[in-house]
Amino acid sequence: MVKRGKKLVGENNNNLERKDANYKKDIMFFPPFFFFCQIRTRPTIEIIFIYSSFHFPPPPHPLPDPFHLLFSLFPPIRRRSTPMDRRIVPPSSDAHVSLPMESRSMSGEIHVILGPMFSGKTTALLRRIQMEMTNGRSVAMIKSDKDHRYGLDSVVTHDGVKMPCFAASELLSFRDKLGAEAYNKLDVIGIDEAQFFEDLYDFCCNTVDCDGKTVVVAGLDGDYLRKRFGSVLDVVPLADSVMKLTARCEICSRRASFTLRKTNETQTELIGGADVYMPVCRQHYVDGEMVGIPEPAAGHIGSGVTDGGPPALELRFEGCRSCSSGGEEDTPRRDGRPDPAVSPLAGANGARYKSMSPALLPITRGRALRYPLGLAPPLSSNPSSSLHERLIKKTDEPSMQSQNQSQGQNLVASENESTLSESVPNSAIDVTNSRVRLPTEAASGELQPLKCSVQNTRMFQSDPSEPISSSILEKSAEDGYNWRKYGQKHVKGSEYPRSYYKFTHPTCEMKKQMERSHDGQITGIIYKGHHDHPKSQSSRHLAAGTMLSCHEEEKTDKLSSLMSVEDESTNAPDHTHHQIDPNSITESPETGGGQSNDCDEVTVDGNLESKRKCLLLFRD
Ligand SMILES: Nc1ncnc2c1ncn2[C@@H]1O[C@H](COP(=O)(O)OP(=O)(O)O)[C@@H](O)[C@H]1O
Ligand SMILES: Cc1cn([C@H]2C[C@H](O)[C@@H](COP(=O)(O)O)O2)c(=O)[nH]c1=O
C-alpha cells in the first residue's frame, strides 16, 4: 500500500518531475494488490484513489504506457466507506457524481469542465474520475500528447496530483488502439487538455450516443486571446452538464476567468505553465494588453514549447486599485498560499513579476508622425491589426496609473457597453449615450469625482468621496472619437504627463497618446494603429456618446483626405498610417522643425486654439 499525495503547492516543475520519479519508484517497489493513493487537494479535501491492480491482463497494445490504463480499466475493490470517504466532496454543480451507481442512467453522458488555466479543471476531472471509480465503474483517462509538461504518462494538476493516462494525438482511434474488448469494458472516459483534440466532437458523439459511455471533458474554453480554443465549446450542446471554473487572478487575487500569455508568441498552441501563462481577472486581462512584453529568449519564438521558460514578465500595475494594499483585504486567498495582492506581482508556481516602473518597461519606438490635432488618422484599408501587431503594440504602452495620479481626466460615454445604470445602481448618470459601462469597480460604487471637461458627456455619481477605478473611461472629444483612458505617465523630457487612450470600439486597435498642460490644453497627440471599421462606426460613436458637430466631423473627413504619407516609418508594424496634414505641421521647438528620430507619431493640433502649442515631440 502506498500513501502519497504530498502537497506540492508552489513547487516548480523540476520538483514535480522528481515527484513523478518517486511515483514510479513507488509503483516499482510495491507491485501492488492495491494502490491506495491519497490525494489531498486544497483546502482540506482528501480523495482516496484505490487502484485495483491484481487483475492485470496483457497490456493493451500499442498504446503507450498501458500499465497505467490498467489501473483504471478494472473496477476498484468495493470496501466499506470510511470516514475518509465521507470527506470526498464531489463538485457541487454535478449532483450525479454523488449518486449511487445503481440510480444512474446507464446511457451515456457528457460532462464538460471549462475554465482558464489554473482554475482546477484537471483537479475536478481527477475527482470525478475517481468518484466514478469509487462507484465501481471502469475508467480510462486520455490526454493530448501535445501536453508533455509533466510527462506523457500522467494527467497532472498544477499541484502535482496525478493519475495515469493515455497520451494520444487524436481520439477517434482510441477504441482501435485500446482494442474492442478493453474498450467495451470501459464505462467512463476522462479527457484532459481537450482543446487540443480536433476530433473531440465526433469522439463524444460516438462514445456517448452510440457506445453509452460517460465522457468527462476538461479543457480551456478560450485561448490567451479569449477566442474559442479548439472544439471544446462545440461539445457544449452535447453536454449533460457544463461547469466553468475560475482561478485566482495572479495580480489581485480576485476571480480569474481568463488566461494571459506573458510572452510575445502568437501561435494559438503554446505548451507552458506558469512560466508562460497566468490567470487573471477581467480587469487585469485588459490591463495586460498594455503591459510591456519582454523579448523572448533567443531561439524561443515559435518553438511552441516553453519548457525552459521564457524570461519572466516584469509587470507593474501601478496605482491600480485592485493591486493597492488593502484593496483586496476582503478577498484573501482561500488556498493559504501567499496572497499576490500582498505581494501583488509574485505569481504562483514560481512565476515572479518584479515591480518595474512604467518608464523601464520595454518600449518599441516608432518614428515621428504628425497629424493635425483633432484629427484621427484615416481609416485603414487593412481591416485589423495582426496579432503580431497587437502584441508588439503591447510593448509600447505604459503601466496603468490611477486616477489619483492622472490629470485632466474626463469620461467617455461608450457605445457597445452595458448600461451604467445596470452596473452602478448608486450612480446617477446623465449622459447623452445611455449605453455606458464602467469598469468592474464601478459595480461596487467605487467612484470619485471626475473632471468632466468634455462638454457633451456628463456623468455624475452618488458618492464623490469614493475612489474611482484605475481604468477610466474618458472622452476626448477633441478629435471626435471616443477614447478610453487607461494609463498615464510622466515622460522624460516632457513637461506634462502623457495620457494613454484606447479607442472604445470593441475591435478597433487604434490608440492615442496625449499630453495636456495643467490648464487642460492639449500639447501633443500621438495616434497609433488604424481604425479597423467603417468610418460610420465612429460617427455612430459620436452620435451616441458625444455631440461633435457636423462641422467638426466634416473637417475631420476633409483633412483626413488631405493627409499624405510622411516618412519611412511606414514599415513600423504598428504604424499602418503615416499621413499628415502638411498645413498643420509646425516646427518643433526641440528639433527646429525637423523630425525627431526618437519620437513617436506626433500629431499637431488642428484646433486653432491649441495649434501653436502642439509642438511637442514625445521623447523618452
Ligand atoms: N492563480 C491561481 N489560481 C488558482 N489556482 C492556482 C493558481 N496558480 C496555481 N494554482 C494551483 O493550480 C491548481 C489547479 O490546478 P489544475 O487542476 O491543474 O488546473 P487547470 O487544469 O485548470 O490548469 C490549484 O489548486 C492551485 O493550487
Ligand atoms: C491559454 C493557452 C494555453 N495553451 C496551453 C498551455 C497549456 O499547455 C495548456 C493548458 O493547460 P491547463 O491544464 O489548462 O493549465 O494549453 C495554449 O496552447 N494556448 C493558449 O492560448
TrEMBL record:
Q: Please give the SUPFAM superfamilies that the UniProt record associates with this protein.
A: Glucocorticoid receptor-like (DNA-binding domain) (SSF57716), P-loop containing nucleoside triphosphate hydrolases (SSF52540), WRKY DNA-binding domain (SSF118290)
Q: Which GO terms describe its molecular function?
A: ATP binding; DNA-binding transcription factor activity; identical protein binding; metal ion binding; sequence-specific DNA binding; thymidine kinase activity
The cross-references to SMART domains, in alphabetical order and at most eight, read: WRKY (SM00774)
Please name the Pfam families in this protein's record: TK (PF00265), WRKY (PF03106)
The answer on whether this UniProt entry bears the keyword Ion transport reads no
Q: Where is this region: Disordered?
A: 321-350, 396-424, 550-603
List the keywords (alphabetical): ATP-binding, DNA synthesis, DNA-binding, Kinase, Metal-binding, Nucleotide-binding, Nucleus, Repeat, Transcription, Transcription regulation, Transferase, Zinc
- Write down the InterPro entries for this protein, in alphabetical order: P-loop_NTPase (IPR027417), Thymidine_kinase (IPR001267), Thymidine_kinase_CS (IPR020633), WRKY_dom (IPR003657), WRKY_dom_sf (IPR036576)
Catalysed reaction equations from the record: thymidine + ATP = dTMP + ADP + H(+)
According to its UniProt record, where is this protein mainly located?
nucleus
Determine if Transcription regulation is one of this entry's keywords. Answer: yes
Quote the biased-composition stretches of kind Low complexity, using this chain's numbering: 401-410
Protein location: Nucleus
The record's section on PROSITE patterns has: TK_CELLULAR_TYPE, WRKY
Q: Name one GO cellular component term.
A: nucleus
Q: What is its EC number?
A: 2.7.1.21
GO BP terms: namely: DNA biosynthetic process; response to stress; thymidine metabolic process
**Biased composition annotated in UniProt, kind: Polar residues:** 411-424
The residues covered by the WRKY domain are: 478-536
What is the similarity comment for this entry? Answer: Belongs to the thymidine kinase family.
What is this protein's name? thymidine kinase
Q: What species is given as this protein's source?
A: Musa troglodytarum (fe'i banana)
